[in-house]
Design brief:
This protein has 280 residues and is an alpha+beta fold.
Length: 280
């Protein structure tokens, strides 16, 4: 089990150290520690150090987030089938995949947007399904809001590795009541129990890259696993956005209704819909 991340550095932290401030955060603001300097080396926690020249490089990059491991610095980014990167925002970090941000950051922050979605869903207790884990902010907040436990699904192992390096995702790996499953939600749902979840949070990537998670077959699977009376939140995006001439919002509403959901209501401030599985 991951209990903490390696020392984390941003341009802001690097500037503070170079300006002689030796009491800084090495976990994106969660805590502060004292950093000692010996010549050009800055000694971090657990015997790690960073050289002055590396700190200078970090000061020139105000978007990226770095970590120190075995006295070497690395950007929190992974190049694979896609390019995954943890980037700074006005709030907690977000994940970029091929330069596309996985959280809303315009006129909001990832944590505020997550809090608002869960406020609308009104979780008090019960079992929550989080279909697209990402950095885990939704799963963490759902548990903090009173969920009995959360099952969170993630397709990309590289996304999980990024989350493991993000201090703000740490509870995803330390909270015993958050259970993680790696794989495509479309297929994982087939193995989940019927009528099991009180709430489902479906916050998928954009339609152009994950169209199967917007389809009727998938919505029928969501309907099968949610309890009668359960509530579903589904992020859609801009209500007027179109992909190849298709109105995403209208299509989602129609397909959710065909799957059996009722009371489909759009919330513009979070760009998503809330709907119910009827009790009868």
């Amino acid at each position: 089990m991951i209990k903490k991340t390696p020392p984390i550095l941003t341009s802001e932290t690097a500037i503070k150290l170079l300006n002689g401030k030796n009491y800084v955060s090495l976990d994106l603001g969660l805590t502060k520690v004292e950093v000692s300097q010996a010549n050009t080396r800055y000694w971090l926690n657990e015997g790690e150090y960073i050289d002055q020249k590396d700190l200078l490089k970090i000061t020139e990059d105000n978007r990226s987030i770095y970590f120190v491991l075995n006295k070497k610095i690395y950007m929190i980014a992974i190049a694979g089938k896609h390019f995954y990167k943890l980037v700074r925002t006005d709030g907690v970090p977000t994940l970029e995949i091929d330069g596309i941000r996985m959280h809303r950051t315009k006129d909001t922050t990832p944590e505020d947007d997550t809090a608002r979605k869960l406020e609308i869903l009104d979780i008090e207790n019960g079992v929550v399904l989080d279909t697209c884990m990402g950095l885990g902010y939704t799963a963490i907040k759902a548990k903090e809001n009173g969920a009995d436990y959360v099952i969170s699904l993630e397709y990309e192992s590289n996304v999980i590795r990024i989350a493991q390096l993000n201090p703000l995702s740490l509870k995803l790996f330390t909270e015993e009541k958050i259970h993680k499953i790696i794989g495509d939600s479309f297929y994982i749902l087939d193995g989940l129990p019927k009528d099991h979840f009180n709430y489902i949070i479906h916050d998928p990537p954009r339609h152009s890259s994950a169209g199967h998670l917007y389809g009727l077959d998938f919505y029928k699977k969501l309907f099968r696993v949610i309890k009668p009376g359960g509530k579903l939140f589904h992020y859609i995006g801009e209500p007027r956005s179109r992909y190849r001439g298709v109105n995403i919002r209208r299509g989602v509403t129609e397909r959710l209704t065909l799957a059996g959901f009722t009371n489909v209501e759009y919330y513009p401030d979070v760009m998503g819909v809330i709907c119910l599985r009827p009790t009868v």
